[in-house]
Design a protein that fits this description.
- The protein is built from two helices and no strands.
- It is mainly alpha-helical.
- Helix 1 runs antiparallel to helix 2.
- It starts with a helix and ends in a 37-residue tail after the last helix.
- The chain has a domain of 50 residues.
Length: 86
C-alpha cells in the first residue's frame, strides 16, 4: 500500500468520525483533517511520479582573473577631526 493510499484511508476515517460526532465544531475539525489528508495523498502521488536525479555541479573552469590578479584597492588617509572643535 502506498503512502497516498494510507492518507486516503486516514481521510475516510476522519469523515466517519465527523459523521458520528454530535459537536458541530468538532465535526468541522474532522472534515478539515480529512481535507488535509486528501491533499497529502495528492502530493504523495505527485512525488511518486517525479523522478529526481541529483547531478553534482560541474567543476568551474579557471578564468583569466584569479584572486591574485585582482588589483587591491589602496586605503585613502582619512582626515583627522579638528581638536579645537571638540
Amino acid at each position: 500500500m502506498s503512502s497516498a493510499d494510507d492518507y486516503r484511508k486516514k481521510a475516510a476515517e476522519c469523515e466517519v468520525f465527523a459523521r458520528a460526532d454530535k459537536d458541530f465544531a468538532a465535526r468541522i475539525e474532522w472534515l478539515n483533517m480529512a481535507k488535509g489528508y486528501r491533499r497529502l495523498a495528492d502530493l504523495a502521488e505527485k512525488n511518486a511520479r517525479t523522478d529526481v536525479v541529483y547531478e553534482p555541479p560541474m567543476p568551474q573552469q579557471q578564468t583569466a582573473t584569479t584572486a591574485r590578479e585582482i588589483p587591491q584597492q589602496q586605503q585613502q588617509p582619512q582626515a583627522k577631526p579638528d581638536e579645537d572643535k571638540v
